[in-house]
């Protein structure tokens, strides 16, 4: 937890050092985010065993913004590890998304995403399972300068591989940064 706080503080300090010019309307960008994922898990027994449905997630992404209204993005999201009793599940998602943006000011925009995601989920003592599903999300972005932007997003990963009482969806609330070239 200390490392995450130090990383977030350092990131924000670096971001505020940049100018406050308007963000470019097109070009390549890269970024990263960190947040909390929540998985739909159910206890296999009554009384229920200990369940840990939430995990820290992180992701990296890169994309191209065609204009101020549309972008595409490739991303990898590590959804973290969840637990049911002594069992553990770790999930990762690889995605390709279309992003529709609605600029409200020259610095602030709302956006939505729709994409396809390849999911990998490993279980303690078992091989990895794979699945392909939709990825949807809603977010907000604030330009700090001509190159840097902060964003926050609520994302849903659907059709994740299931086994036993591990559900097929994961919701993620994250905050991140983008750097535009």
TrEMBL record:
Matches recorded under SUPFAM superfamilies: OMPA-like
Residues making up the signal peptide according to the UniProt record: 1-23
Sorted UniProt keywords: Signal
Location relative to the cell: Cell outer membrane
Domain Outer membrane protein beta-barrel, first and last residues per copy: 11-181
Keyword Transferase belongs to the record: no
InterPro entries reported in the protein's UniProt record: Beta-barrel_OMP, OMP/PagP_B-barrel
Stretches of the chain forming a coiled coil according to its record: none
Protein name: Outer membrane beta-barrel protein
Organism expressing this protein natively: Roseateles oligotrophus
UniProt lineage: Bacteria, Pseudomonadati, Pseudomonadota, Betaproteobacteria, Burkholderiales
């Amino acid at each position: 937890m200390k490392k995450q706080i130090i990383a977030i503080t350092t990131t924000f300090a670096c971001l505020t050092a940049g100018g406050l010019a308007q963000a470019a309307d097109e070009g390549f960008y890269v970024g990263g985010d960190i947040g909390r994922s929540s998985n739909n898990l159910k206890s296999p027994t009554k009384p229920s065993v200990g369940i840990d449905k939430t995990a820290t997630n992180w992701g990296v992404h890169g994309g191209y913004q065609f204009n101020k209204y549309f972008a595409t993005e490739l991303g990898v999201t590590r959804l973290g590890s969840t637990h049911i009793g002594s069992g553990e599940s770790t999930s990762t998602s690889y995605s390709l998304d279309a992003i529709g943006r609605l600029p409200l000011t020259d610095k602030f925009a709302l956006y939505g995403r729709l994409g396809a995601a390849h999911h990998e989920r490993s279980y303690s003592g078992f091989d990895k399972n794979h699945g392909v599903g939709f990825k949807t999300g809603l977010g907000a972005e604030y330009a700090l300068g001509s190159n840097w932007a902060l964003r926050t997003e609520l994302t849903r990963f659907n059709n994740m591989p299931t086994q036993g009482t591990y559900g097929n969806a994961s919701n993620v609330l994250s905050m991140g940064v983008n750097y535009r070239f």
